[in-house]
């Protein structure tokens, strides 16, 4: 009987579950809306329902499920398996004893961790980081998150709060961030920031390729629109990509100077811009980073795509049950 | 027979050695000039001479030396025990196979690591960090260095280059640093930067307490002069302390956001300013750091003073021989 982990990824919009084998392949993927605006109880029931569906498929197909791994927004108290810092986009999620619930419900060893950290672990075990032991990882999307892998394992810090590169300050007197700080990387280089720069550029430059690619509607400009315009040679768009890459590079250089990793993996929606962004980031890292740490570091794009959440969640359980 | 480690600290000016017991107490401390402007061979001979002197004293007093621990500027390749990244202030120090030399010469297990990292370990084992496992440490002096302790042990990164908080960028468009980057923390908050601000303040404000405390000579203004003037209520000096603390706090907040430590220990000459600086730093950390990581973190001054180098070096060996 082939052995699997049940990987679950709790997102603000959807919950995904699936069986993940030792090599990171996914089977029987199941998706259900999170209902994140309803009570935490509803969200929890939706998670259990996804888990049940996948486990039933596993039974029907004679697959053995060894354990459950789950990724969640926020932070987890690993002593009790309880969510200690809620997720912005899931109401009332703080305080949910998620590990005990999963364990009781399915009688399986269960492990839950922050989703960005698990993305990092998934890339380390099954994606772009295979073979490396010292990795830092960024997810650049609506926000900017980060995860740290050291000795091949998750670095959590004292209270599961490590990796918050999106809220590191790169400009001390910079823009106010919703976190209360100033000049956070996220304010300059997230998908949101890039889209905003695209919109402003239209205001200033009038009609251009960015606006055209957004179907003429300024409100439809996204980070993707900006990158697409840049790839087609639009100067205003290229300028935004330069700025974004410069900021990301400075933030990554700080991370590198502090942790001296072998490898930096960049994932999330913005990473889909690909080489056009990666080139600027790498240049900026060389400018802002120390040579001892930048000369050998590999900066690459993440490899895990649509199943990244489920794979990362399973990676945790694969690692934990081996101990 | 009581057991000791021989701790050696290689500095730009002096080499210090001494016996360190299990509790971090130092005996038979011996000091010799480094001769850092002569050949690496000379520096090495001076190190061996300090070691021999201490070991002879140990024998004469029936103390058993179990191993040697040594701190060095630069980075060490821990596979070969060789200095891989030289020290700015010691000529030709790169490439020296320091661990094999010590081992051959004295027939004792020998361990060498970067001095700032060892300061962190010393504080963790014998100083302000006793009992904590997740610690970040800064030394604020002529430059700003850093060390990371996780699970009670040194975090080195891929190539022994971790902890370089002095060269993290807090002001993307800021002053050029000698490292080639821009807006490095060290440019704004090191003893050198503080003394420069003191000098500039005299230029602008004419005669004031800072100048008076420097005996009327602008060139004699140091970081200490500025802090002394601030403690006596001088407004220009207090302004410099505010600025310095704000920058240090922002840099530390970045470090905290990435690593979520239990504790931050601040050492080095500038830390001697004491509470007047610590208060500003703590305020700034709250401004720039995320609540999840700042709410429980303890920010304290280092406790190891004159013997910090020797104690940190010995701490490494005490930890290594226990394995």
Descriptive account of the structure:
The structure is a homodimer of 323-residue chains. In chain A, the strands form 3 sheets. A 5-stranded mixed β-sheet of chain A has the order 3-2-1-4-7. In chain A, strands 10-9-8-11-12 form a 5-stranded mixed β-sheet, with helices on both faces. The mean pLDDT of chain A is 95. Chain A has helices at 40-60, 98-106, 115-126, 186-189, 191-205, 209-213, 223-231, 235-259, 275-288, 291-294, 308-322; strands at 3-10, 14-20, 26-33, 64-72, 75-77, 82-85, 110-114, 135-140, 144-150, 153-154, 263-267, 298-301. Chain A folds into 2 domains: 3-124 and 306-322, 2-Layer Sandwich (Nucleotidyltransferase, domain 5); 130-189 and 236-301, 2-Layer Sandwich (Nucleotidyltransferase, domain 5). The first copy, chain A, is built from 11 helices and 12 strands. The two termini of chain A are 22 Å apart. In chain A, helix 5 (191-205) packs across helix 7 (223-231), helix 5 (191-205) packs antiparallel against helix 8 and helix 7 (223-231) crosses helix 8 (235-259). Chain A has 323 residues and is α/β, with parallel strands linked by helices. The first copy, chain A, is globular and about 60 Å long. At the A-B interface, strand 9, helix 8 and helix 10 of A face strand 9, helix 8 and helix 10 of B.
Topology:
The structure is a homodimer of 323-residue chains.
Chain A: E1 3-10, E2 14-20, E3 26-33, H1 40-60, E4 64-72, E5 75-77, E6 82-85, H2 98-106, E7 110-114, H3 115-126, E8 135-140, E9 144-150, E10 153-154, H4 186-189, H5 191-205, H6 209-213, H7 223-231, H8 235-259, E11 263-267, H9 275-288, H10 291-294, E12 298-301, H11 308-322
Parallel strand pairs in A: 1-4, 4-7, 8-11, 11-12
Antiparallel strand pairs in A: 1-2, 2-3, 5-6, 8-9, 9-10
Helix pairs in contact in A: 3-11, 5-7, 5-8, 7-8, 8-9
């Amino acid at each position: 009987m082939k052995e699997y982990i049940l990987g679950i990824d709790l997102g603000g919009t959807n919950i995904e579950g699936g069986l993940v084998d030792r090599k990171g392949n996914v089977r029987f993927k199941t998706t259900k809306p999170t209902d994140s605006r309803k009570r935490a109880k509803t969200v929890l029931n939706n998670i259990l329902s996804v888990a049940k569906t996948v486990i039933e498929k596993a039974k029907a197909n004679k697959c053995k499920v060894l354990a459950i791994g789950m990724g969640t927004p926020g932070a987890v108290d690993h002593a009790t398996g309880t969510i200690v810092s809620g997720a912005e986009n899931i109401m009332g999620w703080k305080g949910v004893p998620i590990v005990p619930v999963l364990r009781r419900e399915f009688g399986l060893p269960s492990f839950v961790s922050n989703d960005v950290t698990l993305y990092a672990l998934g890339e380390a075990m099954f994606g772009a980081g295979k073979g490396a032991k010292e990795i830092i990882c960024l997810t650049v999307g609506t926000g900017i998150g980060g995860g740290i892998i050291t000795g091949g394992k998750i670095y959590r810090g004292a209270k599961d709060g490590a990796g918050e590169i999106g809220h590191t300050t790169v400009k001390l007197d910079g823009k106010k961030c919703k976190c209360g700080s100033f000049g956070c990387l996220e304010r300059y280089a997230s998908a949101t920031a890039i889209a905003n720069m695209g919109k402003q550029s239209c205001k200033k430059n009038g009609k251009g390729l960015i606006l055209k690619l957004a179907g003429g509607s300024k409100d439809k400009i996204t980070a993707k629109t900006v990158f697409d315009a840049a790839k087609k040679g639009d100067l205003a768009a290229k300028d935004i990509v330069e700025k974004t890459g410069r900021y990301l590079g400075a933030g990554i250089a700080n991370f590198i100077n502090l942790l001296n990793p072998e490898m930096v993996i960049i994932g999330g929606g913005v990473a889909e811009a690909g080489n056009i962004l990666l080139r600027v980031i790498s240049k900026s890292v060389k400018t802002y980073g120390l040579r001892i740490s930048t000369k050998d570091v590999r900066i690459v794009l993440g490899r895990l795509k649509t199943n990244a959440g489920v794979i990362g969640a399973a990676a945790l359980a694969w690692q934990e049950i081996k101990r």
